[in-house]
Amino acid sequence: MAEVDNTALLQFLLRTGDNTLILGHRVSEWCGHAPILEEDIALANTALDLIGQTQLWLGYAAEVQGMGKSADDLAFLRDVWDFRNVLLVELPNGDFGQTLMRQFLFDAWHSIMLPRLAKGTDERVREIAQKAVKEVSYHVERSADTVVGLGDGTEESHARMQAALDYLYPYVGELFESDEVDAAMVDAGIAPDPASLRDEYDALVGRVMEKATLTVPDGSFAHKGGRTGRMHTEHLGHLVSSMQWLQRAYPGSEW
Amino acid sequence: MKNEWPLWEVFIRGQHGLAHRHVGSLHAPDAEMAIKNARDVYTRRNEGVSIWVVEARHIAATAPGEKGPLFEPSESKVYRHPTFFDIPEEVGHM
Questions:
Q1: InterPro entries, from UniProt (chain A) (predicted)?
Q2: What pLDDT, on the 0 to 100 scale, is given for residue B1?
Q3: N or C end of chain B, less CB within 10 A?
């Protein structure tokens, strides 16, 4: 196994932690607004799980970076262009169905990626993944059930779920992009090549969509640029400005 | 058509060896989602090792109006409590 280059490891950790940070924040936007109380609590639990994972990923990222920063510094004091999350997780919540469709498309990938990380060569990555995988097994079960329930539900819920899938699907491809950072992770045995997870993902998503009576769109076009930092959608700026507002207005504030 | 999801009663076993206890109720479209909702609503602070849910309409219950005939007769039957036995010292704490 190759010795891992810290620059590559840092990028990998930022990508992993920013995915959970941005999705966790997005999901938390439902708090107090979900269609029913039980779903409200369930979504808040999911958001908290993701934020908890973020603390671990970005905490490790800050150590690897070696500039004396903390997970909070990375979450609240970076600007939009520094984030390395995939575009999928920053997309707006839309209606409840769109939120759950986005959640399922991410959970499905997350549930396939984490068990690999939990068996990698980096002890810290392994420990974080082992903790996260239990939470994510539940997330994917819940989001899959809801996608099936709404997809195979009423005429209106079916139409909304199909529209959500059509809108979100072009953002799925970015999860399976590989570049030199991924190659370094593969060489060091820390993480798998994202591209190698695609077949398993397609099988899982295909099964759930079939039960949900939804049609997975054709075409392999993928919106991308988030995980490399080349570009984000217009939506991330708004998210970051509300997420970081307090630290920006009252720098260093603690309670 | 009724749009409201049915009501489910939730029972949680706190530890192995203890009985399930009624902890509250919630709404869910089916039993599977009721268990998931119960997990999210009632076990987020490490309260349980097992969950039961039952749709509230399946619980048969006594009517509050019948509490006189049902329960009052037992109020005057103190002899039904096993308090009239002399416990030998050797038995110790029971």
A1: Aromatic_CoA_ox/epox, Ferritin-like, Ferritin-like_SF, PaaA_PaaC, PaaC
A2: 45
A3: N
Which tokens in the block code for residue A204? Answer: 């899982």
Question: Could you name the CATH architecture of A6-249?
Answer: Up-down Bundle (1.20)
C-alpha A157/C-alpha A163 separation (Å) is 10
Helix (H) or strand (E) holding B79: none
B5 touches chain A (CB under 8 A): yes
CB proximity B40 to A under 8 Å: yes
Successive 10-residue mean pLDDT values, chain A, 255 residues? 85 98 98 93 96 98 96 96 97 97 98 98 97 96 96 97 98 96 96 97 98 94 95 96 94 85
Q: For an interface test with A, which of B1, B8, B25, B33 has the most A Cβ atoms less than 10 Å from its Cβ?
A: B33
What lies within 8 Å, CB to CB, of B84 at 6+ separation is: none
Best B10, B36, B43 residue to mutate vs chain A (most A CBs within 10 Å)? B36
pTM of the entire predicted model: 0.90
Do residues A18 and A236 touch, judged by C-beta distance below 8 A? no
What are the extents of the domains in chain A? 6-249
Cα–Cα distance list, A4 to A15, A121, A157, A190, B15 (Å): 16, 10, 47, 9, 45
Cβ atoms of A182 and A5 within 8 Å: the answer is no
A38, A138, A142 ranked by CB distance to B41: nearest: A38
ipTM surpasses cut 0.85:
no
Query: Which chain A residues are within 8 Å of B27, Cβ to Cβ?
Result: 36-38
CATH topology of domain B7-80: Ubiquitin-like (UB roll) (3.10.20)
Question: B76 by DSSP, 3-state: which?
Answer: helix
Question: A47 - beta bridge partners?
Answer: none
Query: What residue ranges do the domains of chain B occupy?
Result: 7-80
Q: How far apart are CA A146 and CA A108, in angstroms?
A: 13
Of B28, B32, B44, the CB nearest to A38: B28
CA–chain centroid gap for A180, Å, is 21
